[in-house]
From TrEMBL:
Gene3D superfamilies: Zn peptidases (3.40.630.10). This is DUF2817 domain-containing protein. SUPFAM superfamilies: Zn-dependent exopeptidases. It comes from Ricinus communis. CDD domains: M14-like. It comes from the Eukaryota.
């Protein structure tokens, strides 16, 4: 399978490529319109393609665009897979569900986050319960929100970073920041204060298409992790969940698991 990635990002081009491939494969299409527009005034949407019987008990689901700009990779992969599936019949009790660009605003505007600066990976929570407390991010926030290239504010941020790296190590700083936070809307890995449009849309898709499934494998396509040119399987979750053990048995050492709650509690020693 040969894949050619776009030289210049274009939401409309990616969407057209995906929809054309889905129609050619005989997929049933559903569209969720986003309320905002792209940088060129283009309409934004998340599109869903379903191949296979509607009551299939086993579903393979792929999801692109969780981190907006990374959707150009995920979208191109999905379109390529659809072109292959057009000539390959699925087993009787297997269906494929492709969710195309779940964060269409981030993809169109070439941003990792959504329209509210929310990192979607940190937004899939029960907002009726208390939000995760990552109070240790407070000491790091101004490092990552300093916009000055030089001058006293830049020097202050650099000095603050140096002190924290000396105290915690670079991996310790990374773990605290990577755990996400829910207080600073202008900060890194902000999880939001309520379910985002993308969150609500994905839940609607899952409820609509996955109810008959007894087994569902979900691959959320990202970039920027692992060795160059090699795939990396990751499971990022606040705490261990029942299906994690099954995934670890299936993928073995290929699966890297990141428990964000544990990583927020980094020891200073």
């Amino acid at each position: 399978m040969k894949i050619s990635f776009p030289v210049e990002p274009s939401f409309d081009t990616q969407r057209t490529q995906f929809l054309d491939a889905a129609r050619a494969a005989g997929a049933v299409l559903t569209t969720y319109a986003h309320p905002l527009k792209g940088p060129n005034g283009e309409a934004l949407a998340t599109d869903v393609a379903w191949l296979g019987k509607p009551d299939a008990s086993r579903v393979l689901m792929t999801l692109s665009g969780t981190h907006g700009v990374e959707g150009y990779y995920g979208s191109t992969c999905q379109a390529a897979w659809l072109r292959e599936l057009a000539s390959q019949p699925l087993p009787d009790d297997v269906a494929v569900l492709m969710v195309h660009l779940i964060n269409p605003w981030g993809t169109a505007w070439v941003r990792r986050v959504n329209e509210d600066n929310v990192d979607l990976n940190r937004n899939y929570l029960d907002f009726a319960a208390a939000l995760p407390d990552n109070s240790r991010y407070e000491a790091l926030h101004e490092i990552y929100t300093c916009r000055d290239i030089d001058g006293p504010q830049r020097q202050h941020a650099d000095d603050l970073l140096a002190r924290n790296v000396e105290a915690l190590g670079w991996s310790g700083v990374q773990a605290i920041v990577g755990a996400g936070q829910y207080l600073h809307a202008d900060g890194l890995f902000y999880g939001g204060q309520q379910p985002t449009w993308s969150n609500r849309t994905l839940r609607d898709i899952a409820g609509r298409f996955l109810k008959p499934a007894q087994v569902a494998f979900v691959f959320d396509l990202h970039t920027g992790a692992g060795a160059f040119g090699h795939p990396m399987l990751m499971s990022i979750t606040q705490r261990a969940y029942p299906g994690l053990a099954d995934a670890q048995r299936l993928f073995g050492p290929w699966l890297y698991t990141l428990l964000t709650h544990a990583n927020a509690e980094v020891s200073e020693t």
